[in-house]
Amino acid sequence: MDVEWETINPGRILLGTNNRTILFGGIGPRHEVKIDYQFEICKYPLKKEICKRLLLEGCNIASESEWSLALKQNKIFGNNEIEELSDKINNSYWGKICDGSPFMSNDWIFRVGREWKLGKNEIIQISKENDEVEYYRLVRNKQKIGSKKQINVLPSASDKIRIFSEELLICMLIGIIPSFIWAYFNASSNYIYEGWLNLIFGGLFFGFFTIIFWRPRTKTWMIEDGLDTK
Fold first, then answer.
1. 228-229/152-153 β-pairing
2. Beta bridge partners of 33
3. Does any domain span residue 179?
4. Residues of the domain holding 13
5. d(Cα 53, Cα 46) in Å, to the nearest integer?
6. CA angle 210, 215, 216 (to 5 degrees)
7. Closest Cα partner for 136 from 171, 106, 92, 102?
């Protein structure tokens, strides 16, 4: 079988999401990746049998970053395939080197994939136990552009103190305070004094419940102003 290869020029892409709600969120944080090398990528997904031979000849399975840059340049296509990429992730991109290389967490729980439907694609998660994926996307002939090496790295973890403070503020503003206001105007005169603990817990529950469909968007990490540059 003849493989069609497309040349991908260096560039930048954004990956991940800054939406951390349960219904609409995904893998975060949203971050920029800078690929400063040229490479070739197969135009269509390839079956495993073909990939085995090409991997022995020096090809590599495409990283999510390489795949996304190729898509941005309108060089890759598919039709009803599920293809597996080389990244292995544990719920987030924290600690990722943003240079185009695959992100492989030590304690990974799923592999990154793409599913094609009628010419369009969507991100999917392929579990460790799933060995039925039949397609890969391969790259070859990586050519470094320039000699200056920069490694842009996301922080190893999110700012948990900031997230906790944000959650507490949300619970106060849309949960606890409205509960007391409602009780003041609608309950008996002694209810606030006798049932203040119930009002607090009820407000906390409602505030945390809203994470299902709403939260302020998180920061997008850009290379110039957000990533650690080593």
1. antiparallel
2. 13
3. yes
4. 5-153
5. 11
6. 155
7. 102
**Amino acid at site 143:** Q
Residue with tokens 């597996």: 84
200 lies in a domain?
A: yes
Place of tokens 């000849």: 57
pLDDT single digits (tens) 27-77: 999 999 999 999 999 999 999 999 999 999 999 999 999 999 999 999 999
DSSP 27: S
> Coil, strand, or helix at residue 24?
coil
Q: Is residue 88 domain-resident? A: yes
Q: Do residues 203 and 177 make contact, with C-beta atoms less than 8 angstroms apart? A: yes
Whether residue 67 sits in one domain with residue 13: yes
Residues 59 and 116 in one domain: yes
pLDDT digits (tens, 9 = 90+) for 86-119: 999 999 999 999 999 999 998 899 999 999 998 8
57 falls within a domain: yes
**What is the Cβ-side half-sphere exposure of residue 35, based on CA atoms within 13 angstroms?**
28
Q: Per the confidence metrics, is the pTM higher than 0.85?
A: yes
* Residue with token string 């948990």: 160
Angle between helices 191-209 and 177-186 (to 10 degrees): 140
DSSP labels, 88-113: EESSB-TT-B-SSSPPB-TT--EEEE
Pair of tokens at residue 218: 């998180």
3-state secondary structure at position 118? coil
